[in-house]
Specification:
- By secondary structure, this protein is α+β, with helices and mostly antiparallel strands.
- It folds into 2 domains: 227 residues, no CATH class; 84 residues, no CATH class.
- It is built from 10 helices and 6 strands; from the N terminus they run H-H-H-H-E-E-E-E-E-E-H-H-H-H-H-H.
- It has a 6-stranded antiparallel sheet with strand order 1-2-3-4-5-6.
- A hairpin with a 5-residue loop joins strand 2 and strand 3.
- The two termini are 18 Å apart.
- Component of the lipopolysaccharide transport and assembly complex. The LptBFG transporter is composed of two ATP-binding proteins (LptB) and two transmembrane proteins (LptF and LptG).
Length: 353
């Protein structure tokens, strides 16, 4: 049985890899076509290609569930087309054993995808944001992304970018006095000194007095604000560019501050439950191969897999976003389509077996 299990697993794994390469290739081509209009003298075609390539690890991790579904359909479908599955069933091999063999490579790939999401994709995504934001200006010492508003004490702060050491770039600090604006400070950068003290660099300050406006420039100035550097870095990132540990850390911080962290919690559970979603879709594929797609062509299997994959992804986004909108635990919203796939797969496999 071990040799047969390995044979089935290899068929599914090769199917997965082929589908993953095709999906990544399509994503690369479509993104290149969509983003080519941004190319100019400073943001060159080489910079655009770097941005797309740096984002491929994250895309691979996202495509694992859908690629698992279509890869299982094509891998097992090939065995069904050559009657090898029929011979296995005639020899007394139960469907659950075939499913177990098919799940093994998918589980391995899913766990590998978790590692990519935790250690590889966030750094690559942030490097891509660096190149895209600063139009090809490269730096090996930090990774940037940006555009975030924060309320710090009585001021409103806009941070264009932040790196993983807590250094801030292109700040604007708006300080109101009641209904009136008291002053605006802009700084090219800021770094944390100690405790709640930051140093602003290349500062321009505009003061709004009752009868005049005063502007002055300073090479540096102190800024006292009780925000930790690591939280500023996480706040400046998009939730889908963060690792699981970063998502959990920042979502916990937001909850402690009694702020809304549902977007980060939603992204956490989408990433954390990705291996479970992949196994659920493998069950659906297994039931289809032994059911309505048993004697269909490869094109029909791929088309069916694409339709089921799109329906699953849309349901995942729908229930996830709905859970955030109605203030419901995101883990339940993400679990609903996964549970439906699991139940449907198990019921259909039992009927076929």
């Amino acid at each position: 049985m071990t040799r047969i299990d390995r044979y089935i697993g290899n068929s599914v794994l090769w199917g997965f890899l082929i589908v993953a390469v095709v999906l990544l290739g399509l994503d690369f081509a479509l993104t290149l076509i969509e983003q080519i209009k941004k190319v100019n003298d400073s943001y060159t075609i080489q910079s655009l290609l770097q941005v797309i390539l740096f984002r491929l690890p994250g895309k691979f991790a996202e495509y694992i569930p859908v690629a698992s579904l279509i890869g299982t359909l094509t891998g097992l479908g090939t065995l069904a087309a050559t009657s090898e599955l029929t011979v296995m069933r005639a020899a007394g091999m139960p469907i659950w054993r075939i499913g177990f063999a098919a799940c093994q490579p998918i589980l391995f790939v899913s766990l590998m995808g978790m590692g990519i999401s935790e250690f590889v994709a966030p750094a690559a995504e942030q490097k891509a944001n660096l190149i895209e934001k600063f139009k090809g200006q490269e730096s090996g010492t930090f990774s940037l992304t940006g555009g975030v508003w924060l309320k710090a004490e009585n001021s409103f702060v806009y941070i264009d970018a932040a790196d993983d050491t807590g250094k801030l770039y292109n700040l604007q600090i708006f300080s109101p006095d009641g209904q009136q604006l008291k002053y605006i400070k802009t700084a090219a950068s800021a770094q944390h000194i100690k405790d709640s003290v930051w140093q602003l660099n290349n500062v321009k300050e505009t003061i709004f007095a009752d009868d005049h406006i005063e502007t002055k420039s300073l090479p540096s100035a102190e800024w006292t604000v009780s925000i930790k550097p690591e939280h500023l870095f996480l706040a400046s990132q998009e939730p889908d560019s963060l690792s699981l540990s970063q998502l959990h850390s920042y979502q916990s911080y937001l909850n402690q501050q009694k702020l809304d962290g549902s977007q980060y919690e939603l992204e956490f559970w989408i990433t954390a439950l990705r291996p479970v979603a992949s196994l659920a879709l493998v069950l659906v594929a297994l039931s289809s191969v032994f059911g309505p797609l048993r004697s269909s062509t490869m094109g029909s299997r791929i088309f069916t897999g694409v339709i089921i994959g799109l329906a699953f992804q849309n349901a995942l986004n729908l229930f996830g976003r709905m859970s955030v909108a109605i203030d419901f635990p995101p883990v339940i919203g993400v679990s609903i389509p996964i549970t439906i796939c699991f139940l449907a797969g198990i019921i259909l496999v039992r009927r076929r077996g």
